[in-house]
């Protein structure tokens, strides 16, 4: 790949016959970033995904939800999980020391739905911060090998969500990654959060489709019980977030991950309402990425660095600034064009016209979140 970049760069500099003052390290670096990002986006291929419900009739599955003071979300979202079709499901809700009436609500649901099981966690039982211990308790209690995980503040796009994911689980495909979009709201923060989530999903799902899965989202993911319990017993990471990321990063291989992209398999959730809450949440996710495999960390670092430099470099040198700004404008335009097909598949086409502005803000966001992730402090999983 780098040979192509260097060859293209040399041809460009030779044909352009620029003044030698312009041929400096910063300008060359920006051109390298341009071609690196262009090739990166062109290589992202999302698989075609059609409904697979018919193949999963009455599959046995266990759906796990962890909840801490989520009574309002459980009241609205849990029935949508309990009423899934085409699967023989058991729903396990782990009630993590809730004090808002969640216990009473879950008791009422248990009387109405025989396939709902509730596990209560006390202060004395809680061993590890975050969801990891809660997931372990639920998955250990599951009677089936196939597991789906989601959150209390999430709701499936259809009654076939569980069967869509379940149908892709097999002896060969032991992890299934799904997409979890945020509900659209009429404010700019919501646009940015949906943009960030769509960009992240496009990257990790396309990488998974190519056999290089490095993360997953615990709002919409399926896997095998045995794999999770084995990972948990060998895991030494005791951090508040990243249980989903670290599990996939540790257990994914080139051939054992499937991707589910049918609209029926989406799981929606509500975005954070303040920048501070959103940035704190993303800082936890970045903190978890420090425990990724070294190669995955390097690939993500260089991708983030290229995005930063192509925006940053035009503003630090007056000599090549006009040309650098043209390259930046060209990249932002190409990014919007190249994103159309993926954003359409993800149901986020309303964001395409906002991509140039959102991408510029995204650079500042990267810096802030990285700095926040370096701060050590008490973090909660929700």
Brief write-up:
51% of the residues lie in helices and 12% in strands.
Number of strands: 9
In spatial order, strands of the major sheet run 3-2-1-4-7-6-8
| Major sheet size, sense and barrel closure | 7 strands, mixed
The coarse silhouette is: elongated
Total of helices: 13
Helix and strand succession? HHEHEHEHEEHEHEHHEEHHHH
Helix content: 40-55%
Provide the residue-averaged pLDDT: 88
Q: Can you give a write-up of this model?
A:
With 382 residues, this protein is of the alpha/beta class. The protein has a domain at 53-273: Spore Coat Polysaccharide Biosynthesis Protein SpsA, Chain A. Helix content is 51%, strand content 12%. The strands form two sheets. The protein has a seven-stranded mixed beta sheet with strand order 3-2-1-4-7-6-8, with helices on both faces. α11 packs across α13 (355-373). The chain is elongated and about 70 Å long. The chain starts with a helix and ends in a 9-residue tail after the last helix. Mean pLDDT is 88; it is low at 12-23.
């Amino acid at each position: 790949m780098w040979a192509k970049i260097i060859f293209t760069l040399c041809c460009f500099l030779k044909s352009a016959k620029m003044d030698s003052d312009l041929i400096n390290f910063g300008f060359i670096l920006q051109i390298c970033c341009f071609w690196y990002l262009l090739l990166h986006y062109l290589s992202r291929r999302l698989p075609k995904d059609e409904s697979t419900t018919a193949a999963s009739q009455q599959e046995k599955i266990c759906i796990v939800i962890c909840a801490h003071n989520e009574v309002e979300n459980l009241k609205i979202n849990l029935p949508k999980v309990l009423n899934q079709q085409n699967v023989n499901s058991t729903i396990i809700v782990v009630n993590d020391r809730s004090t808002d009436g969640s216990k009473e609500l879950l008791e009422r649901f248990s009387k109405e739905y025989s396939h709902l099981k509730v596990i209560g966690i006390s202060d004395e039982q809680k061993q590890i911060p975050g969801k990891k211990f809660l997931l372990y308790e639920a998955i250990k209690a599951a009677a089936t090998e196939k597991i789906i995980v989601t959150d209390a503040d999430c709701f499936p796009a259809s009654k076939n969500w569980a069967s869509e994911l379940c149908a892709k689980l097999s002896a060969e495909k032991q992890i299934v990654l799904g997409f979890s979009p945020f509900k659209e709201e009429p404010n700019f923060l919501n646009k940015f959060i949906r943009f960030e989530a769509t960009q992240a999903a496009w990257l990790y799902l396309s990488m998974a489709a190519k056999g290089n899965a490095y993360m997953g989202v615990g709002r919409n993911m399926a896997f095998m019980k045995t794999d999770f319990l084995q990972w948990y017993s060998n895991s030494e990471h005791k951090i508040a977030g990243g249980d989903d990321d670290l599990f996939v990063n540790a257990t994914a291989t080139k051939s054992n991950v499937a991707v589910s992209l049918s609209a029926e398999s989406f799981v929606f959730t509500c975005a954070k309402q303040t920048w501070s809450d959103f940035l704190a949440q993303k800082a936890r996710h970045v903190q978890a990425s420090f425990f990724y495999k070294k190669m995955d960390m390097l690939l993500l670092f260089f991708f983030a660095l290229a995005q930063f430099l192509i925006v940053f470099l035009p503003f630090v040198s007056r000599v090549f600034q006009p040309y650098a700004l043209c390259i930046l404008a060209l990249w932002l335009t190409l990014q919007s064009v190249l994103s159309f097909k993926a954003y359409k598949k993800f149901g986020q086409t309303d964001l395409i016209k906002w991509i140039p502005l959102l991408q510029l803000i995204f650079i500042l966001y990267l810096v802030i979140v990285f700095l926040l992730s370096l701060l050590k402090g008490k973090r909660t999983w929700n």
